Amino acid sequence: MSGAGGGGRLTSGRDPHTLEQRRRNMSAIRGRDTKPELIVRRGLHAAGLRYRLHGALPGKPDLIFPRRRAVVFVHGCFWHGHDCPMFKIPATKEDFWREKIARNQARDVTVQAQLQNSGWRVLTVWECALRGRAKLAPPLVIDTIRHWLDGREEIAVLAGDWTRVQSRAAVACQGSNLSRRS
């Protein structure tokens, strides 16, 4: 389909980019060494923890702690379909994205089960714990991961504090309503 602007601009739905621009943008998205992953790696390294990267385990965990039989995944909220405000299905090619995210989520469940069955403990750190309005303080994230590594909990999840963000928004709304009434 040709856009109204001519010049060979091929668009689908509401995407403002040409198909070639979109392809380049999507191919530039990293699968490893992402900003959230680097935040976790740098913090843990500075805290004296040593790990291996992207080993030959199921799902290629982002961080592997062999002596502790523990792995850490740093998941992007979009790519893994986290139930938080940072995840939203794109308006273009909705069916494609729903299927893609569903496949990723199914693979995450399978990988977690494989690791657990092999005696590995699994921690998932969601992107929203490290970026955005609900992010946690970096020292808190690192301390939480350290605490989990020192413990015996098999499966754990670390996500952003959306309740704090929602309560702040509620207070802001109440404050604006109060100021209008006076």
Mind telling me the CATH class of the largest domain? Answer: Alpha Beta
From the alpha carbons, calculate the radius of gyration and give it in angstroms.
20 Å
| Corresponding CATH superfamily of the largest domain | VSR Endonuclease
Helix-strand string: HHEEEHEHEH
Largest sheet data:
5 strands, mixed
Residue-averaged pLDDT, rounded? Answer: 81
Account of the protein in words:
The chain is of the alpha/beta class and 182 residues long. It has two domains: 1-30, no CATH class; 31-181, 3-Layer(aba) Sandwich (Endonuclease, Chain A), CATH 3.40.960.10. It is 43% helix and 12% strand. It is built from five helices and five strands, in the order ααβββαβαβα. The chain has helices at residues 19-27, 35-46, 94-117, 138-150, 162-181, and strands at residues 52-53, 63-65, 70-75, 121-126, 155-158. Strands 1-2-3-4-5 form a five-stranded mixed beta sheet, sandwiched between helices. α2 (35-46) crosses α4 (138-150). The radius of gyration is 20 Å and the shape is globular. The model is unreliable at 1-12 and 171-182 (pLDDT under 50).
Keywords summarizing the entry:
5 helices, Endonuclease, Chain A, globular, alpha/beta
List the helices and strands and how they pair.
Elements: H1 19-27, H2 35-46, E1 52-53, E2 63-65, E3 70-75, H3 94-117, E4 121-126, H4 138-150, E5 155-158, H5 162-181
Parallel strand pairs: 3-4, 4-5
Antiparallel strand pairs: 1-2, 2-3
Brief rundown of the structure:
With 182 residues, the protein is α/β, with parallel strands linked by helices. 43% of the residues lie in helices and 12% in strands. It folds into two domains: 1-30, no CATH class; 31-181, Endonuclease, Chain A.
